[in-house]
Task: structure prediction
Amino acid sequence: MILIVASALLILSACSQEKRDNDPGAEAMYEQAKAALDARRYEQAIRLYQRLTTLYPFGRHAEQAQLDLAYVQYRSNRGEAAITTLDRFIRTYPTHPNVDYAWYLKGLVHYADSLGFLRRLFPDQIIDRDQTSLRLAFNDFQELTQRYPQSRYVADARQRMVFLRNTMAEYEITVARYYFRRGVYLGAINRAEYVLEMYPNAPAKVDALEIMTDAYSELELDELASDTRQVLEMNAQGASKPDPESEGFFKKLWPFN
Result:
């Protein structure tokens, strides 16, 4: 029995050694994966990066391979897998020199998801939609700017945060108008107040005040309507009201090329 066990162990050891002998090494394997990435052979790159991190879980190549793997997953529309890889990297290497990039890439993954939401921002029939990706992207970029203010990714992250803020505010306005058209005036007021409270610097604040003025009027709350109208007039001075159907409207939401 002892001889059988010993023989089995020797066979497994030989197979393992043979497998390792067939591997080119961490550096060569990383270069192969990088070449596949540069050539946009994403499936091959994913396999190589995963194999590298399995065979050589320690060292600079394994660390960079995780970031590259997350990027490939992002580019190949595997957002959930990319987030999992990035969360693992941030948790394992919180002081890594490139951890700021991990936060930035997390934001980009959620940001890409949010663009699908933006395409549905002005449907014919407005209903409440999930804004999770918008908020997650905003939070990721915010983490980056607060934790690593000197990062080279901060400038771009801040611009994207402005766009996300304006988009989330415009979404609330769209829903507020939906409520107003259907006579749910309190619901419209609540949505408009939320915009003023959460997104005070967004262009949509003028629309929020306008909706509140009209809703108060419909509810025959004349004093509130008058007060809100005065605030609206002060905020509207010098601010041109955007046309949702015009190209300029989206340029106002999007603060960079």
